Structure formats: C-alpha cells, structure tokens
Task: inverse folding
C-alpha cells in the first residue's frame, strides 16, 4: 500500500468514524483511534494526535451552531473548563510516561464505559423550581434555552461534584487524545442536573478548549504527524457534518445498536492489545 | 459575544481545513507512491514541532509544514475563543468570569510551553 492509498483509506475510515460518532453521540476521536490502531496498525500516539486535532475541528464546527442558537451555556462551559484544562495538562503529561500498551488498555476501558453511558435514558429532571444552589447562584450558572417554541429554565445543582468529575474528564482527554464528551455530559446532566440538550451543547464548546490544553504537550512530543492528521481531521469533520444533517432523516435505533456492539468489540480488542493477547 | 464567538469558531475551522487540504493535496501529488510510516512511533522532527519553525518552513512551501500550519490554526481556535471571551467579560465588567477566562488563558499558554 502506498502513501496515497493509505491516506485515502484513513480518510474513508475517518468520514465513517465522524458519521457514526455523531449518530450515537460519541465523539469521532473515540472511534477513529481504535480504528487506526487496531485495523491500520498505527502507533497509538500518532493516532491520539490525529484524533485530538479532529476533536477540536468537530467541537469548533458543531459548537459554533449551538452557540449561535443559544443552547450552550457559556458561563457553565468556561467555569468547568478550569477543571478540564487542568486535568488535561496532567493527562497529557501522563501519556508520555505510560507506554503504548498501557494506553491501549486504558483506551479500551474508557471506550466501553463511554459506549455504556450513551445507552442511559436522556430524561431531564425539571429544575426550574428546584432550590437555588448557592455556588451556582454566585457563579450565575442558572439559565434557560429555547425548547419547543418557549424558553425552558433550569437551576444548576451539585457544582463541586460536577467540577470534580470534569477534572477526571480532562485527565482522560489529555491522556488519550479524545474529547471525553461522554464524561462531560455525565457530569453535567447526571451530577449537575443540567438539561441534556444544554449539557451536550456546552460539552461541545468545552471539548475544544480542553483539547487545546494537551496540544502544546502533544506537539512538543511530536504526536502530530501532518500526513496522518489531515485525512483524519478533515474526514471526521466531513463525517460529523453529514451525520448531523442526516440524523433527523434516518431511524437510528437499530443502527445505534449495531454500531454500539461493533464499538464495544473494538474496545475489547484494544484491551486485548493492551494485555498483549492476539484476538 | 456568543454571535461573534460562533463566527470565529466556524471561520477558524474552515480556514484551517482549507490550509490542510491545500498542503495535503500538494503533498500527495508529490509523494503518492511513498511508503506510509506511522506504524512505529518516532516523534515528528523539530521543524514540525515548533510553531515558529512550522510557519517559516510553510512559507517556503514545504508541504508537510503547510499541513502542519493548518493544524496549528486549528489548534489556536479554542485559544482565541477564550481570549475573545476574556475581552467580552471585560466589556461587561464581569470580574468573576474575567478571572475564569484569565485562568484559562494562563493555563493554555503554560501548556503550549510545557
């Protein structure tokens, strides 16, 4: 296989990863890394660098639309980014200390957990009449978003717990070159009771800023191979865009299950790779 | 502020995509028959690690550096996002969030040199 064929293959895989990622709500980075590592035999550190770039691209592209439509809450995003960026710097540093097999192992576990998290119910708790959390009030995190013609109000709860969870999400992002959106949304909608729509939109905004905190460290270590980054970042971006456009048009339930099973298998394979077992 | 920010994010990502695409197409035009080399981690050479050297060698039309310049533009997108927010909060005299965005700028700058 020569360079052109290889890059075309990588680009095709990335489009697919971006597409599937936006369909089931996992980031493209989460899917493209194991594809590059398991199927194309690329070293996990190059895969992480390319994935990190794709994460910033999709965050900027999708985040722009959410921000314009007033769904994301910038105060929540900025405030929680304090935790995620700090975690990301620690995680990126850690990624240089751990070897590739350990990284594969951790990646596999995180992939399985994220896939599991995407299955939970997306029912919102109505917090419009909830008691006002003093920290949330002081930081002015409470807000509203356009929902079905009207504005829906929410009151943010559990700020310290959410902040702590965001630190963990940041570590994972820096450690594995992913957006760790699943964990960010978990912190916001489960711990802080922020409506799911606002959580995903705000997570999208945060992912790019979080990823930026690992960039300097990744670049300094030479994780960004331009020849790999460009088909991956462009491919995931195109795929995610197409996925977002087609999402309302296709029935996703069955597709979602098929992809989730496939991704879980890939996650197991990453774990096997980390343990040195050939499947 | 949200409107300006969302425009910055969108145009930033489009600009970096265009630069990467340009560099990538020219690169593949010259190296289509080469052997892909990402199976073993070697770390990229210094002129693809240092932003200033990337800029310099991209200006000389080294195609790998042109792609890398697109990567740098992409990576700066969130950084500018935070800087813009900083000035937005300054204008609104929102001092708590001026502090928050100031911290984010500081940690991003720190991470770029870490």
Result:
């Amino acid at each position: 296989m020569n360079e052109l064929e290889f890059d075309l293959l990588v680009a095709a895989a990335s489009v697919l990863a971006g597409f599937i990622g936006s369909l089931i709500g996992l980031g493209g980075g989460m899917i493209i890394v194991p594809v590059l590592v398991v199927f194309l035999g690329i070293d996990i550190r190059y895969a992480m660098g390319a994935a990190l770039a794709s994460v910033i691209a999709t965050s900027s592209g999708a985040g722009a639309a959410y921000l314009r439509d007033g769904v994301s809450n910038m105060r929540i995003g900025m405030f929680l980014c304090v935790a995620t960026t700090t975690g990301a710097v620690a995680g990126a540093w850690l990624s240089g200390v751990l070897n590739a097999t350990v990284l594969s192992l951790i990646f596999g576990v995180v992939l399985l957990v994220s896939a599991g998290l995407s299955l939970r119910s997306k029912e919102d708790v109505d917090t419009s009449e909830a008691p006002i959390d003093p920290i949330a009030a002081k930081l002015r995190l409470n807000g509203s978003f356009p929902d079905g013609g009207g504005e829906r109000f929410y009151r943010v709860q559990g700020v310290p717990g959410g902040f702590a969870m965001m630190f963990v999400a940041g570590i994972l992002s820096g450690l594995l070159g992913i957006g760790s959106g699943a964990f960010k949304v978990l912190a916001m909608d489960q711990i802080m009771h922020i409506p799911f729509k606002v959580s995903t939109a705000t997570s999208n905004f945060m992912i790019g800023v979080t990823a930026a905190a690992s960039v300097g460290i990744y670049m300094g270590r030479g994780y960004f191979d331009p020849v790999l980054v460009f088909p991956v970042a462009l491919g995931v971006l195109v795929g995610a865009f197409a996925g977002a456009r087609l999402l309302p048009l296709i029935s996703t339930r069955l597709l979602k299950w098929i992809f989730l099973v496939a991704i879980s298998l890939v996650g197991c394979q990453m774990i096997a790779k980390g343990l040195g077992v050939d499947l | 502020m949200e409107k300006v920010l969302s425009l910055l994010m969108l145009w930033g990502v489009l600009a970096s995509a265009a630069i990467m695409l340009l560099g990538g197409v020219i690169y593949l035009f010259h190296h289509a028959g080469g052997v892909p080399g990402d199976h073993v981690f070697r770390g990229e050479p210094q002129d693809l690690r240092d932003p200033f050297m990337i800029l310099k060698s991209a200006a000389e039309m080294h195609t790998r550096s042109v792609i890398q310049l697109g990567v740098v533009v992409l990576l700066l997108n969130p950084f500018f996002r935070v800087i813009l927010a900083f000035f937005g909060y300054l204008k609104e005299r929102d001092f708590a969030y001026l502090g928050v965005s100031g911290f984010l700028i500081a940690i991003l700058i720190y991470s770029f040199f870490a």
User: Anything to note?
Assistant: Chain B has one domain: 2-29+46-113. Chain B touches chain A through 62 residues (CB under 8 Å). Chain B is about 75% helix and 0% strand.
